[in-house]
Amino acid sequence: MSDTNRPSEAEARRTHNAPVVRRPEDHPGDIGRFGNVTRMVFHPSAENPTAPNAGTLTYQPGSGFPLHMHDFAQLWYVLEGECRFGSQTLRAGDMVHMQDPHFEYEMHTETGCTIVFMQYPGPTTGARPIHQGRFDGKDAALGVTPDLQR
Fold first, then answer.
1. Among positive and negative, which fits the CA dihedral 25, 30, 32, 36?
2. Residue 70, SS3 per DSSP
C-alpha cells in the first residue's frame, strides 16, 4: 500500500476500534465448570456484549471433561502439554476449529495441558458464548453438575 492510500491513526480512530492488548497472566485464574483453571482475558459484558470468550484453560494431570455440545463457534490452540480429545492426541502447536453448532469429544490429560481458546457467536446459529456459570467457577465450587448442552 502506498503512503498516499494509508490512513492516519487519527482518521482510523474516527471510524474503527483500536486493538486491545491483554496478557492472560494479568488475570486471576478462576475455577471453570470442569475444575480447570481459566484465565478469562476477554468475555461478553453489558458494556461489550459482542466480545468473545477468550483466554487460557489449564487442566491438571488426570483431569478433563465429558463429551458436551455448544451452539456457538470455537477455536483452540494447544499451548503446552497434551491431551486425548476423542481418538486424537492433541499436542502443543495443534489448532482445533469447532464450527457452530458443535460437540466436543471427551477430553482427558495425563500430563496436564494449557489451551488458548476463543469462543465467538456462531455464524450459522447466531448463538453467543456463555460466561456465567461456565467460567466463573461458582457452580463448580458448589459441586453443581454442569449443563453439557450449553
1. positive
2. strand
- CB atoms near residue 18 (< 10 Å): 8
Phi, then psi, of 78 in degrees rounded to 5: -80, 115
Contact 91, 82 (CB under 8 A): yes
What's the CATH code, domain 23-141? 2.60.120.10
What are the tens digits of pLDDT across the range 90-146?
Answer: 999 999 999 999 999 999 999 999 999 999 888 999 888 876 655 555 555 555 566
Q: What does the pLDDT look like over 26-56, one tens digit per residue?
A: 988 888 878 889 998 998 888 888 888 899 9
Cis peptide leading into residue 7 (ω within 30°): no
Cα–Cα distance measured from residue 97 to residue 53, given in angstroms and rounded to the nearest whole number: 15
**Domain residue spans of the chain:** 23-141
pTM (whole model) above 0.70: yes
Distances from the Cα of 34 to the Cαs of 49, 56, 61, in angstroms? Answer: 25, 14, 13
What whole-number distance in Å separates Cα of residue 125 and Cα of residue 86? 24
